[in-house]
Queue: 4 jobs
Job 1
Amino acid sequence: MSKRLAEVARKVGVSEATVSRVLNDKPGVSDSTREAVLTALDVLGYERPTKLRGERARLVGLVLPEL
C-alpha cells in the first residue's frame, strides 16, 4: 500500500500522511487537497474507499471507436 500512497502523494504534491488522512476520512485536510487526492486516485486507476465514493460510484464511462 505504501507504494500506492507514495505514487498518489507524488502526483498531487502532498505527503503520504495527507493521502492517508484523506483515505481514512480524517480531519485536518483542506477540501481542495481532499478533492485533488481523490481525483489523483481516479486518474491513476485506484479504487476509492467505499465510504468516499459518493454519487460517482454509479457513473460508467465508455470509450467507443468511431462508427
Note: The two ends are 41 Å apart (CA to CA).
Job 2
Amino acid sequence: MLIYEVTLAVDGEAAPRYSSWLREHIREMLGLDGFEAAVWYATSDDGEEAPPPDEPTGDRTWTVQYQVRDRDALQAYFDEHADELREAGPEHSDHVTADRRILEQKRLFQG
C-alpha cells in the first residue's frame, strides 16, 4: 500500500468554497480503481484547535492522504486522470497551492 499525500495551503476567504469542492473531489478520487480510502487532516501549528473547514477565519493548511493499493494504480491515476481532475478545481484555485508526495511503508513498528 502507498499513501498519496496532497497538502493544500488555502486562503481563508476561499476556504468555505474550496472545502465544499474538496469533499466532492475526494469522493471522486475514491471512485478510481486502487484508491481505497482517504483521510482529510486540518493542520494547526500553534496547538489550538483548527477551525471548521467551512468557516472563513484565516488561511488554512489541509492534508489529504489517499490510501492507494499499489504503484500501478497510482501510475494509472497520473497517466489517465490527474491532469483532468486537477484542472477541474474551482475557479478560486489561485487562492490554493498544493504540494504532493508519495509515502511507501517500509516497516511497521508496534509498541
Note: Residues 67 and 80 are 18 Å apart (CA to CA).
Job 3
Amino acid sequence: MTSADSQEFLALFGAERRPDPYPHYRSWRERHPVAAVAERMFVVSGFAEATQVLREPAFGHPEPEYLDPADRLPDQPVDEAGRVVRGFLSLNPPDHTRLRRLVAKAFTPRMVEQLTPRIEEIAAELLDRAPVECDLMTSLAKPLPVEVIAELLGVPLDDRERFAEWSHAMARALDPPLLQHPGTAEPAIKARQSFVAYFRVLAAERRREPGEDLLSALVAVSDAGDVLSEGELLVTLTLLLIAGHETTTNLIGNGVLALLSGPEGLKPLGTEGENAARVLEEVLRYDSPVQLTARTALRDTTLAGLEVPENSQLIVLIGAANHDPATGPSPDRFDPAREPGRHLAFGQGIHFCLGAPLARLEARIAFRELARRRPDLSLAADPAWNPTTTLRGLSTLPVTNGS
C-alpha cells in the first residue's frame, strides 16, 4: 500500500480521460494497487486486493442512520425505529441475508428465462424500426432494457418514458461525493420521490389485483411468515430500476463500441450471433458498465498485509482491477475471441449482482440480433460519454449499417 495525492486520484476521472481511462488506471494500479488518498480513505485497484474487499466480511457497509422526522425528505422510507431503509446491496448480514432471500424468491431464474421470447421480440422490433444511420443508444441500447424492466414490473406502456427519466436522474447521483458533478443531487432526489410515490400507488393496485409480473410477486413474497415492508419494497424497486436499466444500457453500448472500434466490426459475434455469450464476457471485463463500488472497514483489519482502521472508506476501482494482468494476458486489449476469464463486473461474494442473469440475457440477445440484422454496422461519428464515473456508458453512439 502506498500514499497518493487525492488530486492525482481525482484526475483519473477527468473528462479528457473518459473515452479511454484504462491506460491511466494501469499507471495508477502499478504504483498504487492499494493507496491511502485521505485519512481513513483507501483506493483499491489491484484484482486480488479488490476481490478480497468484495468477498471478506471485514468489509461491508455502515449501519443505516436514524433520521429525525424533521430531517426526512418527502417519501423517504424509514423503518419502525426511524432508520433509513436501504436496498440489500447497502446492508450487512443478517439484514442483507433476509432481504436478498425474500427478493430472490420473487426474482427467480425461471422468471428471467421466461422473458427470452419477449426480449428477442423487442430487440428485433427496435432494430427493424431503426434507420440505416442512427444513434444506437436511442434506437436500441436505451429502450430495450427499460422496456424489459418495465414489462417485468408491470409498468403501463404510457408511463415508461418517465420511468426511464427517473432511472437516469437517480443513476447520475450514484457517484461518491468527491466525484459527483454539481447539480446532480436535486434532480435525483426529485426523481426518487416521484418514483416512490408512483410505485406506492402501483403496489397498492397489485395487492388488490395481483398479476403475473415481478411487482405482484414482490408484494406477495414471504419466507416463514416474513414479508417485505412497504419501505423495503420501494427501495428494492428503485434498485431493480437502476440496475436493470442503466447498467444494461451501458453494457450494450460499451460492447458495440468496443466491437466497432476493432478491425472486424461485428464479425466476431458470428453470422447468427452464436459467439455473443463469449464476446459479452470480454465486454464485461474490458469496459465494465460499473466502474467502481464502495465498502467500509467494519473492524480494524489488514489488506495486502497492511493496516486498515475500522470505519475506513474503500473505493474499489472495478474498471482498473478488471485490467490487472491477473485476469489474463494483454488485459488492456479488447479481444472478442478471448476465452471467458475472471472479472469483477458483477461484484463478488454476498453482494454478487442478483440481476446478472437478466443483464447477460438482454445483452446477449441484443448482440445476436445486431449480428443478424445489422452485420455491416460501423461507426458514423465519434460517440459521446455520460458525465458519470460509477456507471460508465455512452450518451450517443452514431452508427451506420453501411448500405
Note: The chain has one domain: 2-400.
Job 4
Amino acid sequence: MPERPTLLYRLYCGLTSLVEPLAWRTIQKKLQAADVSVARQRERLGHASAPRPDGQLIWFHAASVGESLSVLSLIKRLGDRLPEAHFLITSGTPTSAALIEKRLPTRARHQYPPLDTGGPVKRFLNHWQPNAGIFVESEIWPRLIVESARRGVPLALLNARLSEKSVKGWSQRPQTARFILDSFRLFLTQNDRTAGNLIGLGANPDHVQRGTNLKAMSDPLPVDQDVLDGIRKEISGRPVWIASSTHDGEEETVLAAHTRLLKRWPNLLLLLIPRHPDRRDDVAAILKEAGLKASFRMAAEPITETIQVYVADTLGETGTWYALCPIVFLGGSLKEIGGHNPFEPAQAGAAVITGPGYFNFAETFAPLVKSGGAIKVQSAQDLSETVERWLTVESALREAQAAASACVKTQENALDSVLDTLCKRLDLT
C-alpha cells in the first residue's frame, strides 16, 4: 500500500476532478466519431457494459494497439497455466478495441478504462474487483494505480519503458514519483537503463527486474488466406517488396528508393502500409508528387499492370501482407520515432530492413542486426541497394530470412520466465 498522498498527488486529483466534464466531452466525441455504442462509451465513466465473471480476474491495462496486442500471447499462456482464471483487458482507443475483440483469448473480455478521476475509478474497481492488475509499458494513471493498490490489488508494470523526458519530469517530483511507484509489487523492464531509472526515481530495488520486450514474443499476425490468394492472383508473379508502418516524413524516402528500383525492375510493386491509415490523403499527395501510379486497398482499387504502389490503408491485415513477400522495410525508424516490432515480419518468414531510429526496440533489433536477419539503412540509396541485393541474390535473402527466424525462436523461453515471475510476485495461483 502506498504511503500518505503527497501534496502534488492531491492537487492532481483535485484538478482532474474539475476538468472531468470537459475531458469526458472530448473523449465522447472521439468515441462517437468511431461509431462506439453509448453503452461502451460509458465505460470511460466507469460504468461496465459486461458482468464480472465469477472467480479470479486478472486485469491487463495497455495504452493502445501495439501494447494491447502484445499481451495477448501472454494471456493465452497464463490462461493455460490458470485454467479457472478470467482476464480483463482495458485500452483507450477504438482501434485497439476493435483489433483486440477479433483476437480475444479464451475467458477474456475488453473494456475501455475509466477516466483517471474519483467517480469513474471507484465505479470501475467496485464492479470488476480485480485480483491483480498488470499495466503495460509506460501507461501511468496515478489515481487508478494508487486506488487499486489501496484496495489490496497487487500491481505490476510489465514491459516497463521510460522516455528521457519522463525520467526528467518525475525526477523533479521525487516524493510523488516514489509515492506512485510504491503501488507496484513488480517492475519488469525492457532494458537495464529503465531498471536503473526506476530505482533512481524511488522504486524498491527488490521489485525491479530486467525482463524482455513483450512485443518480441507476440503471436504471429493473422493471415486471411482468401485475401492473400486474391492479391497473389492480381499481381501474377510480379516482384514485390513491402514498406510497413511508415510515418509522416518517411514515405518520401521509401518512394525515392522505389523509383530507383523501378529503373531495373519496371514491373516491381511496392506494397506500402502506412502506420496510420487515416493519413491516406497525405500519402496520396506524396505519391502524386513522386509521379508514381497507385491504388488503395480501402477504395477496393485493383492492382493493374500499371500500378507501381499498392497502399494497404486498412487495419488488421498486416499479417496477410507479410505472408505475401519476404522483404520488409519497417518504418518508424527513418525518423526519431522509436521503430516498431521487427519480430512480426520475422515470424512471417521475412528479412527485415530498418532505419537507425529504432531505440524503443534496441534490445530486439540488436541480435537481428548482428545475425544478418535485419539490415540497417540510412538513406533512399541504402534502402534501394539492400532491396536490390535481396531481389537479385536469392541465397542472400534466404540467409537473412533464416537468421531472422532463428532470433524469433530464442524468445520462446523468455515468455515462460515472464509468466513465472508474474505468478510468483502477484500471488497468481
Note: The mean pLDDT is 92.
